[in-house]
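Closing statement on the nicotinic acid adenine dinucleotide sub-project.
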Amino acid sequence: MTLRIAMAQLDMLVGDITKNTQAVIDAANQARDIEQADVIVFPELTLTGYPPEDLLLRPSLDGRVESALLKILDEVQGIYVVVGYPRRIDGDLFNCTGVIYEGTLLGEYAKQELPNFLVFDEKRYFSEGRDACIVDIKGVKFGLTICEDIWHPGPIAQAKEAGAELILNLNASPFHIEKMGQREALLHQRATEVSLPIVYVNYMGAQDELVYEGGSFVVNARGEKVSQAPWFEAGLYCVDVIVDESQPNKVMPVAGDISPALDVEASVYQAMVLGLRDYINKNRFKGIVLGLSGGIDSALSLAVAVDAIGADRVQAVMMPYTYTSSMSLEDAEEEANLLGVKYSVLPIEPMVSAFSDALAPEFAGFSKDTTEENLQARTRGVVLMAISNKKGLMVLTTGNKSEMAVGYATLYGDMVGGYSVLKDVFKTLVFKLCRYRNSLGYVIPERVISRPPSAELAPDQVDEDSLPSYDVLDEILHMYIEKDLSAEAILATKQFDRDTVYRVLRLVDVNEYKRRQAPTGVRITARGFGRDRRYPITNGWHIGD
Ligand SMILES: Nc1ncnc2c1ncn2[C@@H]1O[C@H](COP(=O)(O)OP(=O)(O)OC[C@H]2O[C@@H]([n+]3cccc(C(=O)O)c3)[C@H](O)[C@@H]2O)[C@@H](O)[C@H]1O
Ligand SMILES: Nc1ncnc2c1ncn2[C@@H]1O[C@H](COP(=O)(O)OP(=O)(O)OP(=O)(O)O)[C@@H](O)[C@H]1O
Ligand SMILES: NC(=O)CC[C@H](N)C(=O)O
């Protein structure tokens, strides 16, 4: 006998239980009628989307979920539906998955391993389940697990003990660099521990800072990957399993298509595009406006914006001032032309002069400093926010992770905006991503990539006048922020200049207040500047420890 399992690698809108429920019903009907599937498996917390955060605390949650489940029980026939939802049992809320067939809830499992690290906060909401749940589907014993469960040996061993012959794992597993390989190694290990095949179903879509890249996959009882759904593409992807009592492994998944792994640049670029597209569309913005300086960050941000929502929904604004070079003006115009976006030039000189004149009495006796530089950045921020308000376009913030780490950005200036695609991307990776994007089609002028970055806030300024070279800076930042090394541990890794290391770490520490006010943006590492990293702003910790 053969059983066909449809992996519903879909997107759900967090909080829209009505729409998500309809999506479950439609996908189940499609899987039954078009794919001839026997079973359809959805990602974790299908009905609420993931993470629902404090929506889980709303008093109306329980009623909404009950109605949604009743609707699925009522309206889907002829296919086993494995769906995720939050459910309150005896006063406690659980992260559940249930198997529904012909109007009956055949079994329900509550997640046992609740992630409470990095971006995850599940212990704030859920109680831990304790028991395995095995459901018989056409003579095969399916064991249910949910996402983090599979990262630990316990739940799957318990399912095996309870008689499972195949494991279904429902996931909301967000992207970060190297995650694709980690999941594969993990499933290899888990499957071989219990000698059972595992069907791993993930979301495809983005939710605020999180991006789910799909790549749902199946491993056999030896832990070998036998099929893998595409990355960054939603859809129903089927796997057949042969059920043969005479074989040592009764349930054997049949080999299918395996989507090739993506390299770092390709996966990060696609994550940025998906993160931005879903943020703009799910929040119903008409489009995007951004300040185009002729520099590399805004050039890459523009390319991502166009790839995300199309050139006709993107406006670029060049706002030259005295220090803006003609090269920057030429490059910005060329970028806009290459990508086919609406391009405006709005000189800020008259606005900055008006501010300076008005402030002159207040500033009498003071010498020039960063105040004047910040005034330029803030004027540009005012202009962009005015265009945003008038036209319903969201301002795309362009600062990268290296700058956000050391506070190299102006509050209410170039930090304005609603969303950022670079906030978790170090500057050294920005260069590589530009080259990657140009390999798909030339959109970023070569000179923008090869010339030294400059904020152009003062005459002949280049970033590396005030910061160490980006190669050095990013290495130190990676070790401090992403690997949690102390200053002395960083100095022990190689020959860094001691003062530079201490200066960089100090800048990171004292600029927490800026990051706390920064817009959200795509997370591409396991330690982004969003929910991954929660440092107190006011603190007396010793720098660099
Ligand atoms: N702990 C704290 N909690 C809350 N607020 C705090 C604070 N400490 C300072 N502040 C406030 O923040 C202000 C200082 O921040 P802010 O006004 O932003 O200014 P600030 O950090 O002094 O200057 C901006 C820096 O970013 C560089 N920049 C600007 C623009 C673009 C680029 C680029 O290349 O991309 C680089 C620029 O060269 C300069 O070094 C203080 O005047 C104070 O009002
Ligand atoms: N002349 C300008 N016209 C339009 N926007 C500008 C201009 N200068 C700066 N900006 C905006 O402010 C952001 C910060 O720019 P800045 O040049 O200070 O730093 P950067 O980190 O080198 O960024 P970029 O590489 O994009 O220039 C830019 O990405 C851009 O969005
Ligand atoms: N939703 C979850 O349980 C996710 C946790 C898991 N470690 C992952 O990132 O894949």
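The CA atoms of residues 327 and 479 lie 35 Å apart. With this model delivered, the sub-project is considered complete and its resources will be redirected to Aim 3.
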